[in-house]
Task: structure prediction
Amino acid sequence: MTDSEPTPPPEKPAATVPAANVSRRGFSVWWAVGLAFVALVGLIAIFSGGSDTASNASGLEEFEFQTADGGTTTLAEFDGEPLVVNYFAAWCPPCRAELPDFEAVHREMGEEVTFVGVSRDNVTDAWLTLIADTGVTYTTVFEGNVQGSFAFLDARAMPTTVFIAADGTVKQVWSGLLDDGTLRDLINEHLLDQADL
Result:
């Protein structure tokens, strides 16, 4: 190097992030991703429809429900009939959305299967108003928002629909919204003798 050549400036060291910060940041990101995934799975189960199977209804027929005239009844009243038991509430938007479809399928298939709606509302007025607003004509009863038959079935979301064969066997417990087409399919699959269709 000659005296006339300029001296190059010293190189700046590369910026680094302390290892502790990288580790903490990575943990936070994965923790957030994990929480988001769990929330998404829960929403899918509640609003999109999921299903669980069960084996028998032994004990379910013992739970008492309030009738619209102020009396009480149980599912034993429908012994020997295939049942579609739908748990709903006025505070549940998917419940409100599916009730007209349940009414339509009841009008088509009510001679082959019996529909029973079970209200889990906090007060009877909400139950009766919702039934009037949605035009439901099949039997509905009131259980209220309590740990009753709903908890006995280990149901996990609202709405929930239970398909019970004429012999009392619970064929399926469906958690989530049902449209008329899926409801018909499930009735045909679980409650009607396919040889007679």
